[in-house]
Amino acid sequence: MSYAEGILNGKSAIVTGGATGIGSYIVRKLGTLGAKVGIVSRKEENLIEAARKFKQDDGLDVVWRTGDVRDPDGIKNSFDELAGDLGGIDILVCNAAGNFICPTEELSWNGWRTVIEIDLNGTFNCCQAALLHLKAATDGGRIISISTTQADYGWPGAAHAGAAKSGIQNLMKTLSVEWGKFGIRANWVSPGPIEGTEGVDRLIIQQGLADQVKERIPLGTFGEGDDIANAVVYLSSATGRYVSGTGLAVDGGSQWDRGR
Ligand code: HXC
């Protein structure tokens, strides 16, 4: 199931963390629907391999720069260079994230700081780095941040990521108000567990929690990468033009089921 062909023709997008996991599904979807796409991540080998696969599997010419979202100046340079390659930035997908499970009483200050810096500060850095380009977007710039449904609840073992992802949601609300005057829409997508991602493998399957988590999903299965990519397309394209400052949970109906 997909959107009309060419719905994103003429648009340019940057996806942070776009070489792997959910980010790679978003890149593939935006690209096959007509957007020119650039990706940024820390590891050059991942970027080279991802660009090769996007070309081989989907015929997409995805451009890339290395960059760490924790480094504001480095990210600004990478985004400016990519904007040159792509002819601007209409769509920014803040997807890069880091996470690990650790009980809070054992979590070091550096462990806390590292995840907050990647997830929350990294999203702030990327929004600022893209701002001038998003302001120039013809049909209004779009920011879509990838959060998680876990951010709406306590998240035992992931205090750092829960706090950061909650913070991202409030940042999107604030930017939707402050940057609405520039025509910029700022929203987030909250994935539930998405199969085949490093996060779900490490945080759910390797912890032996797969069956337990699936039982709690009203639709009974993990989601797919394309479920998240399709939500991002809705918020990136003309279909989402009047949507700003809000979140879209893509989680098989789990959101209102925590009381069971
Ligand atoms: C306890 C840990 C730890 C662990 C790292 N640390 N892993 N503490 N348990 N498993 C601590 C380290 O000891 C160190 O603190 C501090 O965190 C920084 O660790 P580094 O390895 O130096 O950091 P860095 O190399 O920058 O790596 C960042 C990272 C790493 C977040 C720790 O895991 C990473 O790069 N991840 C990127 C990919 C990723 O996480 N993807 C999943 C996203 S999924 P000390 O005190 O020792 O110096 C997601 C949503 C999932 O976000 C939703 C599922 C439902």
Description:
With 260 residues, the protein is an alpha/beta fold. The protein has one domain: Rossmann fold, CATH 3.40.50. Helix content is 44%, strand content 13%. The protein has a seven-stranded parallel sheet, with helices on both faces. Strand 2 (36-41), helix 2 and strand 3 (63-66) form a beta-alpha-beta unit. Helix 1 packs across helix 8 (225-236) and helix 4 (109-135) runs parallel beside helix 5 (159-178). The protein is globular. It starts with 11 loop residues before the first strand and ends in a 10-residue tail after the last strand. The mean pLDDT is 95. Hexanoyl-coenzyme A binds at residues 97-100, 102, 108, 110-111, 114-115, 118, 148, 150, 161, 193, 198-200, 203.
Compute the separation of the termini in Å.
32 Å
Q: Spell the H/E element sequence.
A: EHEHEHEHEHEHHHE
Helix run count? 8
Would you count the extended β strands for me? 7
Helix content: 40-55%
Q: In angstroms, what is the radius of gyration? A: 17 Å
CATH class: Alpha Beta
Query: What's the number of domains?
Result: 1
Principal-axis shape equals: globular
Helix- and strand-based class?
Answer: alpha/beta
Most strands sheet: 7 strands, parallel
Identify the bound ligands: hexanoyl-coenzyme A
Record the strand order, biggest sheet. 3-2-1-4-5-6-7
CATH architecture: 3-Layer(aba) Sandwich
CATH homologous superfamily label: NAD(P)-binding Rossmann-like Domain
The low-confidence parts are none
In CATH terms, what is the fold-level topology? Rossmann fold
Strand content: 5-15%
Mean pLDDT score: 95
